[in-house]
Amino acid sequence: MTALWIAHVTVTDPEAYGRYAQAAGPAIAAHGGVFLARGGRFRQMEGAERPRNVVARFPSFEAAVACYDSAEYQAALAHARGASERDLVIVEETPPA
């Protein structure tokens, strides 16, 4: 089963967050992650709004968790800490009916 990273982000330091984004992309790709949405237009229907929304698909739940836990992603994430307010969840996709 594939899995999705779903992140909702408010960037507070664009320069530092840019360093995160530069390093995070290759780490995500190295674990088979593909971006489905990265910023772009949105409409908040319920809950707390964050102006940046990102969705990435991974080949499995385990690959998504391994990416998050990897040294490469954690090094990238160090740039986002203090430069953003983030919520991130990993969700296993439902198979097509």
Mean pLDDT equals 96
* Low confidence ranges: none
Instruction: Estimate the helix proportion, in percent.
Output: 25-40%
| Percent range for β-strand residues | 25-35%
- The CA-CA distance between the termini, in Å, is 13 Å
> Total helix count?
3
Assembly type:
single chain
Cα gyration radius (Å): 13 Å
Described by strand count, sense and barrel closure, the largest sheet is: 4 strands, antiparallel
Q: What is the SS-derived class?
A: alpha+beta
Order of helices and strands, N to C?
EHEEHHE
Task: Count the beta strands.
Answer: 4
Please give the order of strands in the largest beta sheet.
2-3-1-4
In one word, what is the shape?
globular
Protein name: DUF1330 domain-containing protein
Pfam families: DUF1330 (PF07045)
Domain DUF1330: 2-93
Written description of the protein model:
By secondary structure, the chain is α+β, with helices and mostly antiparallel strands. It has 3 helices and 4 strands. The chain has helices at 14-30, 61-69, 71-80, and strands spanning 3-11, 34-38, 52-58, 84-92. A 4-stranded antiparallel beta sheet has the order 2-3-1-4. Helix 1 packs antiparallel against helix 3 (71-80). The longest helix has 17 residues, at 14-30. It starts with a strand and ends in a 5-residue tail after the last strand.
What's the gist of this structure?
By secondary structure, the protein is an alpha+beta fold.
Furnish the topology, listing elements before pairings.
Elements: E1 3-11, H1 14-30, E2 34-38, E3 52-58, H2 61-69, H3 71-80, E4 84-92
Antiparallel strand pairs: 1-3, 1-4, 2-3
Helix pairs in contact: 1-3
